[in-house]
Amino acid sequence: MEPVVGETAPPTARVLIAGIGNVFLADDAFGPEVVAALRRRPVAAGVHVADFGIRGMDLAHRLLDGYDVAVFVDAAPRGGAPGTLYLIEPAPVDAAAPAPPDAHGMDPVRVLALAHRLSAAGQGGAVPRVVVLGCEPLVRLRGDEPEVAFGLSEPVRAAVPEAVRWLESLTRALQGDPRAPLDAVPLAPVGP
C-alpha cells in the first residue's frame, strides 16, 4: 500500500537512553556497557543513546532538551539475584528538595532534582518522564576503595544482551506512547 501524497508519518516520541555508572567500580559500569552494546545496533529515528558515566550535571542539562522520555540504564541494587533486570518508574521528585550537585558523581535522584530545579528556573525545557532499566549488581563498591575494579561480574555481563533487547522493545513502545504503563510494555523474550 502506497502512502497518500502529502501524508506524513505519525510523530514519534523523542527518547533519550542514558547509560549511567562508573567504569572503575565493577558492576556500576552496567549502564555504560549496555549503551556501548546498543550503539553497535541500529536505533530508531528520535532515539538518542549516550553514555553519561558519572557526568550527572551533563545528564541533568540534557534532560531539558525536549525529550518525551528518558531511560536511565544503571546498576540497581534491589535485593534480587545478581543480573536480574528491573524496569523502575522513579517516584516524583520534589524540585525544592536539597540536592547539591556533585560534578563527579550524582545519583539518579540528584540528577532528577537538579533537572527539575533548572527547569523551574527557566534554564531549559520540561523534565521528561524517566524510566530506569536497572540491573542487580553482584559487586557493589562505594568508590572509596584503594583499588579500581574494571569489568562486570559474570551475571551482570550476561544480562547486557538481554538489557539491549529490553531497551529495543521499550523504546518502540514508548515512541508510540510515551505514557505507556511499564507493565503494558511487551519486553523482548530472553534468548539470543
Automatic annotation (TrEMBL):
Keyword Iron: no
Highest taxon of the lineage: Bacteria
Gene Ontology biological process: protein processing
InterPro entries given in the database record: Pept_HybD-like_dom_sf, Peptidase_A31
One example GO MF annotation: aspartic-type endopeptidase activity
Keywords, in A-Z order: Aspartyl protease, Hydrolase, Protease
Stated family: Belongs to the peptidase A31 family.
Designated name of the protein: Hydrogenase maturation protease
Organism: Streptomyces cinnamoneus
